[in-house]
Amino acid sequence: MSQESNVSSPYEPEFSFKQVVKGWLTDLKYLFKFKKQLALAILAGALIGAALAWKWPVTYTARLTFVVDDSKSSGAGGLAALAGQFGFNMDGIGGGSGVLEGDNVQELLKSRKLVKATLLTPYDSISNRSLADRYSEAYKLDKKWLKYSPDGKKITFPADGQKFNRLQDSLLQEITTRVLEGDFAIGKVDKKLGFFEVNTVMRDEMLARLFCERMIKQATDFYITTKTTRLRNNVARLQTRADSIGRILNRKTYSASVANQQLLDLNPAYVTANANVEVQERDKIVLSTIYSETVKNLEASKSMLAQETPTVQVVDEPELPLKKNRLKYPIAIAAGAFMGLFLMGAYRLLMK
């Protein structure tokens, strides 16, 4: 019996919460022997946290909300709203395949083309600096890029629309990537609603505001131009045709009037004079009919263009002063003190 009791059991012992608590208390008693080292670690962590809070860069958040009003794409609006109450997404029904319809607006505003165009807009009206120039200054990228400059001068991105060289293009792509990855975000306020929210977080207050507002302006112009190009070209073509026919009709009208006046003074024996008047009148009637149909089509195209042209309505604009984001001292000090205590405690337990 004694021999069987001395044989070790192949099974693990049962879990005991009491044993776990007892182990914790034992570790705490052991760590209490190094209270001076723990106190120093807490003090060092608190000082590091305070230094981080002091050196942490301050950022500003520009928030803008807008809604897209597209009369044509609202055919299934009632059905989509009803389905949204039951958790179904039916944005793709009823013409929701447009450029800035449904969730496509989020991808459009993340376009590198639009971000680059926005960065190349003027920062102020005094100098030729662009938003990209101010961004590189705020993030100290201009000093970092001096090593790439062939003449030792700062690399700039003028807002006058001039062509950039290969180096400027590559650095502008770096700024665009930084903006898309960490400084700019867009999302829906509520999946059931058509309101979109844009947030821009940057180290310069005016830069954040200007970029947020101009990004929406770029997207709006791109959207309206893309969606109404065909109809605008059709209206322009019909307008040119109507103006041309109108000028010809005016000349024919004067010609017919002159022919009628000459007919009164001619000898009735000349039969060809009557034929000339009839030809002038016939041409005038034909041109008048063509002109009226052209004007009718022109007005119909203008009406269709007005219906197809959407409206991007800004609801809330970013207003100064913007929301300031900074690492608060109490949070940084508390987090630093906790990390110092944790690291010192873990080190002493590992060395036990």
Describe this structure in words.
- The chain folds into three domains: 19-56 and 328-352; 58-228 and 310-327; 231-308.
- The chain has twelve helices and five strands.
- The protein has helices spanning 2-6, 17-32, 35-55, 77-84, 104-108, 112-119, 131-138, 141-144, 166-183, 205-265, 272-308, 329-350, and strands spanning 59-69, 184-188, 195-202, 311-316, 323-325.
- Strands 1, 2, 3, 4 and 5 form a five-stranded antiparallel β-sheet that branches.
Number of domains: 3
Principal-axis shape equals elongated
Proportion of residues in β-strands: 5-15%
Element order: H for helix, E for strand: HHHEHHHHHHEEHHEEH
Assign a percent range to the helix content.
Answer: 55-70%
- What is the number of beta strands? 5
Mean pLDDT: 78
Unreliable segments of 5+ consecutive residues = 1-8, 73-97
> How many strands, which pairing sense, and closed or not: the largest β-sheet?
5 strands, antiparallel
Question: Cα-atom Rg, whole angstroms?
Answer: 38 Å
Distance between the termini: 39 Å
How many separate helices?
Answer: 12
Structural class call reads: alpha+beta
Topology:
Elements: H1 2-6, H2 17-32, H3 35-55, E1 59-69, H4 77-84, H5 104-108, H6 112-119, H7 131-138, H8 141-144, H9 166-183, E2 184-188, E3 195-202, H10 205-265, H11 272-308, E4 311-316, E5 323-325, H12 329-350
How would you summarize this macromolecular structure in one to three sentences?
The chain has twelve helices and five strands. By secondary structure, it is of the alpha+beta class. The protein starts with a helix and ends with a helix.
